[in-house]
Amino acid sequence: MSSAPTASIASMVKQNEAYATAYAHARELAVTSEICSWHDRQYRNSLRPSQHLQARTEIQEETQQAGEMELADEFATEAKFSLAMLREERRQKLRELYQAEARAYYEELAMLGLAPIPLV
User: Fold this and answer.
1) Would you give the distance in Å from CA 40 to the centre of its chain?
2) Distance CA 96, CA 104 (A)
3) Which alpha helices (DSSP H) does the chain contain, by range?
4) Sequence-distant (≥ 6) Cβ neighbours of residue 44 within 8 angstroms
5) Distance CA 30, CA 27 (A)
6) How far are the Cα atoms of 27, 28, 36, 42 from residue 32, in angstroms, in the given order?
7) Which is nearest to 66 in space by CA: 54, 55, 58?
8) Tens of pLDDT along the chain (120 residues)?
9) DSSP summary character for residue 5
């Protein structure tokens, strides 16, 4: 009997190794994130009171700018939608105007006895 593993077992081992590598990488990223958070907290705690105020002001400004950008994006989306609606309204009005003019022209021709085919 041969002691070589079958293809399915080899594939499963390879897949398990890939999972283990991915898990190790994810753990490494989580540890790095925790370390970055710790250093960020240490930096904020090490600031003098005047620097705290400045840092807080900067954070508030960044938050305000992010909110303004969100509002601008919403406004742009609404503007695009309203322009599309306006464009569709104008098309409909023009279509109705052309149809009314065509009927009036047809009726004028019909009064003269020159109407080619009836308009629906």
Assistant:
1) 30
2) 12
3) 7-46, 49-112
4) 52, 55
5) 5
6) 9, 6, 6, 15
7) 58
8) 456 668 888 889 999 999 999 999 999 999 999 999 898 888 877 766 666 677 778 888 888 888 888 888 888 888 888 888 989 999 999 999 999 998 999 888 888 888 776 655
9) P
